[in-house]
Design goal:
There is one protein chain. With 60 residues, this protein is of the alpha+beta class. β2, α1 and β3 form a beta-alpha-beta unit. It has one domain. The model has no long low-confidence stretch (mean pLDDT 81). The longest helix has 22 residues.
Length: 60
Amino acid sequence: MRDNNCEWAIGGGCLLPGFKKLLEKNGFKILDNPVEANVSGLLEMAKTISSKNLTGTSLK
């Protein structure tokens, strides 16, 4: 995930042994809880998609 000039790594894979150090060595920043960040991002995407779908649909 890119944020301005930073690259963020999210998801459970960031917690694999040795992988965090490898990512940081290559310029990635790891959040304190990458699994929760992944879920939060997916939830926001789902909310956005859901609201767009409901806007064009009339409920009867």
